[in-house]
């Protein structure tokens, strides 16, 4: 299906790692839709080349920031202001319908059925279920909607300083208008919220479709032992009984599919730097080797007599005038 796509966002090279794991998890589960990633200028050219190996489309957009330090401070997440950049996803008008997924989500099975839903479909947020979580949502690209969102952001801002507060205010009837636009929590399962209702997780958790690594600590902040396939942080096993399997799954994909791409890039960049140094050294050697010898006064006089005058170089009028002035002085 060429006119529908899963879309994600990476605002720097670190978040690109999450986007790559997400993209690879969608590939692993044989999605029939296109994969697109929005990037900002902060993403390096090398990382963009790796993104091209997993995503069908890599689109660079300008960063948008709420700059709402007060509300962001309430969540102790100042970095979330840049999530306003997510609004650019509505500009992808060559697609008829898309599913946006944050770069810190992970697909556990094929979820193409999400495209049967309409805008604006999302799952409830575990912290306040009358609000949706903006980590996974179904939308229809539209420049009209994009401009309305920008105007709404300018006039009303966001109650949490990030994209989630803005989108909940904009799509304000989500909680009451149409239950068909309420995605089951299994499509956006918070990997940390499962502990608040463990019996429910034990009963429904095996059917989870998308896991979302909410919070300031992301999977790439942990350490991983590829031999034992265990997740570590600060030298000790971190996480709890339910979170560890999700973290291990993320790291399995990272180590198998993403790390080799990063290592290849590192090798190419290293070889390229060595090549640059070799070329610079060779040019330096050639310059020294072919440095022209100083002409004798007799050679200079003979060139003048033969009409071979370097008007733009050493025989330029300004240089001759300078010599005469020095002589006369």
TrEMBL record:
<dbReference type="GO" id="GO:0046872">
    <property type="term" value="F:metal ion binding"/>
</dbReference>
<keyword id="KW-0464">Manganese</keyword>
<dbReference type="GO" id="GO:0005737">
    <property type="term" value="C:cytoplasm"/>
</dbReference>
<dbReference type="GO" id="GO:0005634">
    <property type="term" value="C:nucleus"/>
</dbReference>
<keyword id="KW-0320">Glycogen biosynthesis</keyword>
<dbReference type="InterPro" id="IPR002495">
    <property type="entry name" value="Glyco_trans_8"/>
</dbReference>
<keyword id="KW-0597">Phosphoprotein</keyword>
<comment type="function">
    <text>Glycogenin participates in the glycogen biosynthetic process along with glycogen synthase and glycogen branching enzyme. It catalyzes the formation of a short alpha (1,4)-glucosyl chain covalently attached via a glucose 1-O-tyrosyl linkage to internal tyrosine residues and these chains act as primers for the elongation reaction catalyzed by glycogen synthase.</text>
</comment>
<dbReference type="InterPro" id="IPR050587">
    <property type="entry name" value="GNT1/Glycosyltrans_8"/>
</dbReference>
<keyword id="KW-0325">Glycoprotein</keyword>
<dbReference type="Pfam" id="PF01501">
    <property type="entry name" value="Glyco_transf_8"/>
</dbReference>
<keyword id="KW-0808">Transferase</keyword>
<keyword id="KW-0479">Metal-binding</keyword>
<dbReference type="InterPro" id="IPR029044">
    <property type="entry name" value="Nucleotide-diphossugar_trans"/>
</dbReference>
<dbReference type="GO" id="GO:0008466">
    <property type="term" value="F:glycogenin glucosyltransferase activity"/>
</dbReference>
<protein>
    <recommendedName>
        <fullName>glycogenin glucosyltransferase</fullName>
        <ecNumber>2.4.1.186</ecNumber>
    </recommendedName>
</protein>
<keyword id="KW-0963">Cytoplasm</keyword>
<comment type="similarity">
    <text>Belongs to the glycosyltransferase 8 family. Glycogenin subfamily.</text>
</comment>
<comment type="pathway">
    <text>Glycan biosynthesis; glycogen biosynthesis.</text>
</comment>
<keyword id="KW-0539">Nucleus</keyword>
<dbReference type="GO" id="GO:0005978">
    <property type="term" value="P:glycogen biosynthetic process"/>
</dbReference>
């Amino acid at each position: 299906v060429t006119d529908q796509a899963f879309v994600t966002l990476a605002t720097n090279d670190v978040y690109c790692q999450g986007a790559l794991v997400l993209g690879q998890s969608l590939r692993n589960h044989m999605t029939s839709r296109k994969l697109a990633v929005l990037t900002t200028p902060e993403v390096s050219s090398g990382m963009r080349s790796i993104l091209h190996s997993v995503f069908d489309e890599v689109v660079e957009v300008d960063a948008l920031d709420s700059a709402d330090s007060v509300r962001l401070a309430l969540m102790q997440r100042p970095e979330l202001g840049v999530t306003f950049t997510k609004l650019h996803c509505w500009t992808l008008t060559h697609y008829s319908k898309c599913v946006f997924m944050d770069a810190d989500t992970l697909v556990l099975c094929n979820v193409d059925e999400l495209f049967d839903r309409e805008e604006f479909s999302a799952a409830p947020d575990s912290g306040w279920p009358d609000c949706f979580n903006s980590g996974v949502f179904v939308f229809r690209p539209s420049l009209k909607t994009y401009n309305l969102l920008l105007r709404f952001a300018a006039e009303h801002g966001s109650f949490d300083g990030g994209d989630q507060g803005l989108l909940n205010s904009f799509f304000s009837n989500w909680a009451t208008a149409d239950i068909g636009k309420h995605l089951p929590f299994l499509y956006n399962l918070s990997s940390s919220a499962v502990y608040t209702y463990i019996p429910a997780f034990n009963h429904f958790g095996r059917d989870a479709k998308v896991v979302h690594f909410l919070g300031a600590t992301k999977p790439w902040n942990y350490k991983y032992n590829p031999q034992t396939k265990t997740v570590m942080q600060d030298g000790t096993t971190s996480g709890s009984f339910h979170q560890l399997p999700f973290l291990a799954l993320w790291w399995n994909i990272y180590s198998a599919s993403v790390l080799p791409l990063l290592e290849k890039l590192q090798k190419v960049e290293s070889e390229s730097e060595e090549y640059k140094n070799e070329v610079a050294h060779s040019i330096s050697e050639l310059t020294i080797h072919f440095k022209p010898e100083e002409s004798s006064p007799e050679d200079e006089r003979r060139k003048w007599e033969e009409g071979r005058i370097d008007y733009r170089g050493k025989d330029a009028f300004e240089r001759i005038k300078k010599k005469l002035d020095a002589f006369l002085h």
